[in-house]
Amino acid sequence: MTKLILVKHATPQIIPEVISHRWVLSDAGRCRCGWLADELNAQGVSRIFSSFEPKALETAALVAVRLGLMMEPCRNLHENDRTGLGFLTHEELQRRLREFFQQPARITIGRETANHEFQRFAEAIANIVSKEDGRHSAIITHGTVLRLFVAHHNAIAPFDLRSRLGLPSYVVLDAGSFSFDGEAHNCPDPG
Fold first, then answer.
1. What does 108-140 look like in DSSP terms, one character per residue?
2. Helices then strands (H, E): number in the chain?
3. Distance between CA atoms of 87 and 19, rounded to whole angstroms?
4. Of 11, 18, 67, 90, which one has the fewest beta carbons inside 10 Å?
5. 25 neighbors 47 (Cβ within 8 angstroms)
6. Is the per-residue pLDDT at 90 higher than 90?
7. Average pLDDT of 82-106?
8. Structural domains in the chain?
């Protein structure tokens, strides 16, 4: 089986006055990239792709350097467009995300519907998979878009997968069918 590994980026430095798609990694997030590199190496990853968002790019770069691999940023692997949304409390963000998943044709957070986000991400994945040649690939991306994709191809609700994905974390899919074995791999808590 050729593997497609979808990775939720490492822990960002949260700065409320900066829009989330511009956040970089925190010190703890950078440290956790070592665990992620070891995990992806054990999975046999030979190609790394990334969203253009800084927290994903930085995660991918730190992993790629440790593994001696090239990293390729790709369009349309980003999180849903939250331009103009402003900083939300954890509770408000979760409420909005629940609506986002339950009403996929309606804009409930940011500027993009869940349907649109899924479609653009799925097209980017299809482009990557078409060039795999039997190699295992990792895609460093974001929680919301990762959950939409996995849920679309498997019997799992996207919001239910949320609590199973830490920072960083990953899921392993079959690159042909996108089937998911149900296991979310999370970085152990350092404390």
1. -STT--HHHHHHHHHHHHHHHHTT-TT-EEEEE
2. 6, 6
3. 7
4. 90
5. no
6. no
7. 90
8. 3-186 (3.40.50.1240)
Q: Are 142 and 12 in contact (CB under 8 A)?
A: no
Q: What pLDDT sits at residue 183? A: 95
For residue 74, the Cα-to-chain-centroid distance in whole angstroms is 13
Q: How far is CA 86 from CA 82, 110, 124, 146, in A?
A: 8, 9, 27, 22
Residue with tokens 């629940």: 98
Whether 48 contacts 78, CB under 8 Å: no
Over the Cα atoms of the chain, what is R_g?
15
Q: Would you say residue 191 has pLDDT above 80?
A: no
Q: Please list, residue by residue across 79-91, b when 16 or more beta carbons sit within 10 angstroms of its beta carbon and e when fewer do.
A: bbbbeebeebeee
How many CB atoms within 10 Å of residue 75?
11
